[in-house]
Amino acid sequence: MSRAPAIHPLAPEARLLGARDVATLTGCLALVVVPHALRAPWWLTLLTLCLYGWRLYLTLYRAPLPSRWLILGISAVALVAMWIQFGTLFGRQPGIVLLMLLSGLKLLESRTQRDGAVTAFLAYFLIITNLLYGQAIGTAALMGVALFAITATLIGFSAPARAPRANLRTAGVLLAQAAPAALVLFLLFPRVQGPLWGLPQDAYAGMTGLSETMSPGNLSDLAQSDAIAFRAEFEGDPPVNALRYWRGPVMWDFDGRTWSMRAEFQTTTRPPESDGTSYRYSVVLEPHNRTWLFALETAASVPERARMTFDGEILAGQPVRARLRYDMKSVINPAPRLTEPRGALARALRLPPGFNPRAVELAAGWHKASASDAEILARGLEFMRNGQFSYTLEPPLLGTDTVDEFLFKTKAGFCEHFASAFAFLMRAAGVPARVVTGYQGGELNPVDRIVTVRQSDAHAWTEVFLGGRGWVRVDPTAAAMPRRIESGLARAVADTGALPLLMRSRFEWLRGARYQWEALVHKWNVWVLGYNPERQRDLLLFVGMRDADWRTLTAALFTILGVLTLLLLAWSLKRFARPDPVQRAWRAFCAKLAARGVERAPHEGPRDYAARAARALPASRRPILRIGALYLGLRYGPQPSSARVARLRRMVRELRVA
Amino acid sequence: MIGGLIARHPRLANRIWGFTPPERGTVVLVHRRVYIVPTRLGWLFAGTLGILLVGSINYALALGFALTFVLAGVGLVGMVHTARNLARAAVSAGRAEPVFAGETAQFRLYLDGRAAFDRPSILARHLGSGAQLVVDVPAGALAEIVLAVPAPRRGWLPLGRVMLETRFPLGLFRAWSYVEPDARCLVYPRPERAALPPDSGESASGARRSPTPGNDDFSGLRGYQRSDSPRHVAWKAVARSGDMLTKQFTGEAAAELWLDWRLLPAGLDVEQRLSRLAGWALAAERGGLQYGLRLPGVEIEPARGDAHRAACLQALALFEVK
Hints:
The structure holds two protein chains of two kinds. By secondary structure, chain A is α+β, with helices and mostly antiparallel strands. Chain A is built from 23 helices and 19 strands. In chain A, a hairpin with a 4-residue loop joins β4 (253-254) and β5 (259-260). Chain B is built from nine helices and 17 strands. In chain B, strands 2-11-10-6-7 form a five-stranded antiparallel beta sheet. Chain B has a four-stranded antiparallel beta sheet with strand order 1-3-5-8, with no helix packed on it. Chain B has a three-stranded mixed beta sheet with strand order 4-12-9. In chain B, a hairpin with a 2-residue loop joins β16 (290-295) and β17. In chain B, α8 runs antiparallel to α9.
C-alpha cells in the first residue's frame, strides 16, 4: 500500500552528528572518564584524550573522519601496549582501561547519531565501572551531573534545531520526573545477594584492614591511613575511650618476627554469659575482604550468619566485600572462661628456639623470682612502665632478634612492637600469652553520637592466661604510654608528618565541619549504600508486607510504576492550552442547540448559525439571537470586557431550549 | 496478510485507526490515535540497562542500582514525553493550488501545537508517495507542512493518508499517528505544446490576428478588472498613480477563438484530446485571445483572464470524472 522512502529522516542511522552533538558528546565522555584517567596508566589517559581531541578537531575543521583501517591500527597498537603493561587484557583494571580506550575509538569513528547514542551508552558503562572503586557522595554527585549531560546530549540528537537551553530544561524535567520511578525501583526491585558469578582476581584489591599476620611495621603502616574501618552506633552512651577495645584476629604463633593466626583453633563456641555492664550497638563495617567482624570486648552475642571461635573471634560466613551492618551486644566484665581446649595453653607457650636471647634471659629471671603467674605479669608490666620506651608511627627497622632489638636497643616502636615483645616475654617466663589485633578507641561524633573507628586506630595488645581468672587482657602499650589509650593516638605521638592530617590537634576548626560531614556520610552509607536484601525486608515489614517474595514485589512494583505513568500522562494532558472562556461558552451553546437537532455546519459562521437556529427554534428565538450577537461582538469586536464575557457565559448556561 | 485484510475491509481499518477517512476540518490527534513502540535504539538502551543491572547485582553496587533505575525512569518518562509530543496536536488542511498532470501537487497542512510547550522534530510523511518533511512546532503556534505529492493523472487528487511521527526527546520510542484530512488538489490535463488551431471559420468575428506578436502591441491603459492577469497590470503606472491599471494590447479585443472538442483529429483518444485542448487554452491565454471551450456537454463562453483560464482547465480536468 505504501512505498517506504529509502531514508527515514528521524532514524538515527540517517542523521549525521552535528558540531554541537560532537562537542556535547565529547564533554560527557570527558566528564565520566576523569576518575578513570587518574587511575589508568598515563599513556593510555593521554591516548584517550588525544582521540577525543582529534574527533573535536575533525568536527571543527569539517575534515573527513579517519578510515576504518587507521582506527583498527590504533586499536591494535594500544592493545599490544596494554598487554605489555598489564600482562593480560582480562581482570578489572585492564578491562576498565580497555573500556576507556574504546570510548575514544568509538567517538572517533562516530558519524551518525546512532554511533553517537552507542557512545553515550558506553559512557554509562564508564560511570558504573567507576563505582567499583567507591560509592561516596561525591561520586554520586558526579554521576548525577554526567547523567544530566548525557540526557541533554541525547535530546540534542532528537532536536538539533532547538536552543541548547531548552534541551537542558527538558533534560532536567525528564530526570526530575524519573526520580519517583527510580526511587520506587530502588526500594522495591527484588534484590538478590550477589555475586552471580566468579569475580576477577583483582576485584577486591585495595581494601585495607588488618591481616592474618602481624609483624613489626605493618600496623604502623596501617595507622597512617585515615580510611574508616567501621562505625558503631550505640543505644545510649558509648563506653569511654579507654574501654573501647575492638577485638579482631587473635595471633597464636610466633616465628621470631611474625605473629600469625592458625586455622585449627577456629572451633565454634558460644558467647560468654554476662552479668556486668552491657552495651548494645550496631556496627557498619567497611569491606575489608576478610571474614572477621569486629566487636567491643567482650562480645556477648553473635550476628546472624556468623560464628564465634573459641578464642573469641567473630567470623562471617564469607569475606566481607560489601559494607556490612550487624547488631551486637557486648559486656565489660564477663564471667571468666576457665577451661581451654587441649593443647591450646601449650601452644600459647611455644617460642621459636634461638631467638632473642636477652629477652629469654630476662624472663627466666622473672620466672625464678616469682611465686605466681600474676607476679610475673606484674614484673613484666613494671618493666614496660619504666623502660623509657617511646611511641612512634615511624619505628626504626629491626633485624633478626626483633624483640631484643626493640626492648634493649631502639626502645621506640608502635603497638605491635609492644604487644609482640610483651607476649614473648610472658611466654619465655612460662605464662601462656597470645597477641590480639583490632582497634582501640575511635572517635565519637558529637553530631550523631556515632563512634567512627579508622585504620589509624589499629591496635595490638596481649592476653595472658592466669589460673582462676582465665584469659586477661594486658595492654603493654597502655602500660608504657598511658596517654595512647586514654586520649588516642594523636596525643601519644608528637605532631609529625606521619600522623594523618585530620588527627592532628592543630586543626580543631576543621573537626566541626568534619563531624557534620561524617554524620551525613554515615547516613548515606546506611540508607543508600547499605540498602540490601535484609534492609529491603525490614522496609517491607515496616509497611506491612510480611514474607514478600519476588512475585509480590514485582506486582507491587508494576502497580506503582503504572500509577506513576498515569500521573505523568495526566500531567502531560494538563499542560494543553484550554480554549478561552468565550470559546468555551460558544461551544456549550452549539452543543445545546445540536442536542435539539440544529447542528452547526463546519462552514457556517456564528451569525448564520444563530439566525438559522432562531428560525428552527422560535420559542428561544430571542436568547439565541442575543447570544449570537454577544459572541460576535466578543470574538471579533474591540477589547472584550469581562462583564460581557460573564453575561455570555450566564446566558448560555441559562439557555433552555424547548 | 494483515495489510491485505485491512485493505479488503475498510470498516475494520477504520475501527483500528480510530477514524473514518477523510476527515473534515481540524483533526485532533487524541491519545487513542497515537501509537508508540520502542525504536531499535530503545531496545539497545534496554539491553544496556540489563547489563548495568546484572553488573550492579554481581558487584553489589548500590549506586549502580541507582544509575540503572534512574535510567529506567528516564526511559519511562521519555515514553510519555514522546507520546505527548504528538498527542492533542491538531491537523488542518490548507488549499492546494491546481497543477498540471505530471507536476507535483503542493499540499499544505497546518500542524497546530495547541499547547504551552513546543513540539520539536515531527515528521510528516505522505504514505502514498513517500513525500516527507520534518517540522518543529513552536509553543502556542502552528507549523506549516508542504507535501509535494506527484500528480500523474488529471482530475481530483485526494491527499490520502499522512503519517505524523516523532522520536523526541530521547529517540528511544517512536510515536506516530495517521491522519487523512479532507484535502484534494485539482489536476489539470497535461498540456500538449501544440500550435493553436487554424482559423476554422468558427471564430465569431473572423478578424483574428496572429496571436504570437499580439502580446507586444501595446495600445493603452484601462481600469483594472478582477479577472485581469497580474502579468498585464501596469505596475509602473500603479506605483506612480496608486490606481490599478491594466495594459491593453491591440490584438486582444478583437480575437476570439473557440477551442472545440469536435475540431480535433479523429485519431486522438480522450486524454490526448484533453491535453491538446489544455495546451491550446494556455497558448490562447498567453496570446491574449478571447477563447471559449466546447466539450461534449460543456460550453464555456469566450472570455480571457486567469479566472476564465482556470474555469476552462477545470472543465477539462473534470471531464467525465465521476
